[in-house]
Amino acid sequence: MSSSGPSFRRWARGLKADIKDGFKGLIRSTTPSRSSTPDPRPAEAARGVEGISNANEHPQSSSTVKDGLKVSLNFTQTLLKRLPEIVDGNPVKMALSLAKMIKEIKEAVKDNMDAVERRIASTGAQLEIVADTRISRWEPNDPEKPWLDRFKQILAEELMTLRRLGNEWLIRKIANHENEKSQIAATLERVNDARMQFELYTNI
């Protein structure tokens, strides 16, 4: 027993060491390596940065749209919006209302007008001629009266066209109003031609 005792203890210690080393190896083989497993945090951080960047871009885009809408509310759009206000059946009063309206809009939009709109403003402002006090003194048999009646008839027809354009625009509310601008310009050109004939033959 004395000779086998030390040998048994050495064998037992060796077995214990082998078992310990085996467990260590097993643990190492089942534990994931830090270097082999991708860290999701950088990708999440990148997405976070991208999200912040996109969030910052949206207010700028929204601001640009708002600025564009402000600019687009120019002479023509404002005029279209207000044309239905011309409701008086008297063409002379309607012409005066339109001339006053155009003057107010021109003052409001300042330089936010193109060449066509400036021509519209100039033509519309000249309608104030119907306020000339000499017109009210004409008698039915005066030679100027037929020219006044003709001018008033054209005024009535063309101003109704303008009101129709305004009402249609209010229904559709389209951003692009180039077509309406052209129609307004053409309508007021016809009014202007009638005005010049009226002035020529009545010496107003």
Description:
The chain has helices at 4-30, 40-72, 75-82, 91-109, 115-125, 145-172, 178-202. It is built from 7 helices and no strands. By secondary structure, it is an all-alpha fold. It folds into 3 domains: 1-32; 39-72; 73-202, no CATH class. α3 (75-82) packs antiparallel against α4.
Regarding quaternary structure, what we see is: single chain
Work out the radius of gyration.
44 Å
Helix fraction bin: over 70%
Count of separate structural domains: 3
Total beta strands: 0
The string of secondary-structure elements, in order, is HHHHHHH
**Class of secondary structure makeup:** mainly alpha
Q: Count every helix, treating DSSP H or I runs of 4 or more residues as helices.
A: 7
Strand content: under 5%
Unreliably modeled segments: 49-72
Shape assignment: rod-shaped
Cα(first) to Cα(last) distance is: 148 Å
Question: Sheet with the most strands?
Answer: none
Q: What is the average per-residue confidence, as pLDDT, rounded to a whole number?
A: 75
Helix and strand arrangement:
Layout: H1 4-30, H2 40-72, H3 75-82, H4 91-109, H5 115-125, H6 145-172, H7 178-202
Helix pairs in contact: 3-4, 3-6, 4-6, 5-7, 6-7
Region (Disordered): 23-66
Biased composition (Low complexity): 28-38
Biased composition (Polar residues): 53-65
Task: Supply the key terms.
single chain, 204 residues, mainly alpha, 3 domains, 74% helix
